[in-house]
Amino acid sequence: MAENNQNAVAGNVAAKPKPAAPGAAKPGAAPGAAKPGAAPAAVSDGGVYKPPVDRPDSNPYKASRISLVNTWFQERFYVLLPVIDYLKKKEVPQHRHSVWYYFGGLTLFFFVLQVLTGLLLMQYYKPTEAEAFASFVFIQQKVPFGWLIRQVHAWSANAMVLMAFIHMFSTFFTKAYRKPRELMWVTGFALFVLTLGFGFTGYLLPWNELAFFATQVGTEVPKAVPGGAFIVNILRGGEEVSGETLTRMFSLHVVLLPALLTILIAAHLFLVQVLGSSAPIGYKETGRIKGYEKFFPTFLAKDAVGWLIGFAILIYLSIISPWEIGIKADPLTPAPLGIKPEWYFWGQFLLLKDFSFPGGELAAIALFTTAAIIWVLVPFLDSKASREEKSPNFTMFGLFLLIAFLVYTFRVFLLYR
Amino acid sequence: MAQQGNFKSPSRMVALGGEASLSSSGAITSGKPREQGLGGIDFERRSFLGRVVGGIGAAVAVSTLYPVIKYIIPPTITTKSVNELLVGKAAEIPENTGKIFQFNKDKVIVINDNGKLTACSAVCTHLGCVVHWDNEQNLIFCPCHGAKYKQTGEIISGPQPLPLATFKVKVVGEDLIIAKA
């Protein structure tokens, strides 16, 4: 069996030695041929000399260095070797928009950083009303490098959201969602929503004033919808934002959301392995693809360079521009002036404020929900792209959303400087 | 067997076609030999680059792990060690009972045996359980593995290797004071 395995891992060799075709020389005639135990070479019946047949080696990789550990696993898990071969198949097309392929990996990188730094923060953090702020300050001031871990967690969260934004819009504008990758778009959108959920639930955990009032405002939003008070009650674990809310947000932030996100990331990555990276419409036909590079290891190595750059920027930001510690939340103090949510909620925040007419909040929520539903259904609506035709209408729709988002975000930036 | 190799790339197709003649005698078609695939690579330059990348990678890994390891080690909370501590009122320990107080880093059991006050460590020297005063047997008892000590902390029987450390205890007015031995 081991022989077959080595053939398989080397690739391009059939797993079982095939019987030789009729008319060919007897198996075993050539030195080192596939079948062991065959008749010894050269000496044949009747004393007739048969010259050895020159035939290609069945396993040209047998001289390649395979470590002991590798061999150990190969002997036991050879059934998985086709999976590894399958992974080796993955390729990334190279063209002038190839740069956008890096942002999904960057999002994943920042997520992994979030998991690691989050786990570290949890070693000291106490998710209760009485102790949350104190433990948060303890991490920042008393634990060695605690400030760094917290700053990296906060910055990496923002970086993850930003990368997800870029990944989503670049996917949209290159129409990578089109057939057959509809489900990649849907899982990707779900991942994006979960990412925003992480941002929202994590924001309360320091239990400082800003966190408290941001959550107060954020969890108030569903009240505009009929029956929304019930949802608010569930989100807050009571009528008001309190220690109960903190416990809920903490459990969502460290248990439910990571579990969901992990499952969805697995699905997303599985799909990208099966379906491959998409090239923009018409690029294959018009020869604008310069070539393909192997995902493992070439593209992954390039990806890793991007991760290192991202990591360096994170550390730089953590030191140069640290997030504040703030003041402990007190439900009986007035909200600080100029309170606003995190930047990725600015668009929604200002739209809610702009729609100040009666029933405006409900209209704004309805608008978001409709836009989100259309957004997630785009692969199914955009039939032109599915036929590999250009679909400028959808490009315009995406541009409109992107510009509206940027304008609103910038307006908040101007208003709340 | 799943498809193998680079099927999308045109160059791979050429390679497959070019090799077809080799396997005309019915042998198993194989991949390109190693030497062909790695032609045109400057190995000396490659190993140098490999070392540089490995070296930088190691430096990055170490400088990332260092703060993480420092972070995991819990910070030492320094509390002032006092020689004497007022722990409460003498009336808190009625006759024939014991009560445990925190004294610096130690847990100290103060025992009132018919008016005679003694104090010793409340942590069993066997495996660290907290002991109690058993008035019926008139001894300090550890319920975890049955260690028995005298009121003064000396060993009576059980698995414990050492006697309990002793402390001084005194009553000033109504106050109960524990002091280092």
Structural features, described:
The complex is a heterodimer of chains A (417) and B (181). Chain A is mainly α and 417 residues long. Chain A has a single domain, classed as Up-down Bundle (Cytochrome Bc1 Complex, Chain C). Chain A contains 15 helices and 2 strands. In chain A, 30% of the residues are buried. With 181 residues, chain B is of the alpha+beta class. Chain B is 24% helix and 29% strand. In chain B, the strands form 2 sheets. Chain B has a 6-stranded antiparallel β-sheet, with no helix packed on it. The longest helix of chain B has 30 residues. The interface between A and B is large, with 44 and 30 residues.
Give the SSE layout.
The complex is a heterodimer of chains A (417) and B (181).
Chain A: H1 2-10, H2 68-76, H3 81-88, E1 91-94, H4 102-122, H5 132-141, H6 146-173, H7 182-204, H8 209-220, H9 228-236, H10 243-275, E2 291-294, H11 295-320, H12 346-354, H13 360-381, H14 383-386, H15 392-415
Chain B: H1 10-19, H2 34-37, H3 43-72, E1 84-89, E2 97-103, E3 106-113, E4 116-121, E5 132-134, E6 139-142, E7 147-149, E8 155-157, E9 166-172, E10 175-179
Antiparallel strand pairs in B: 1-10, 2-3, 3-4, 4-9, 5-6, 6-7, 7-8, 9-10
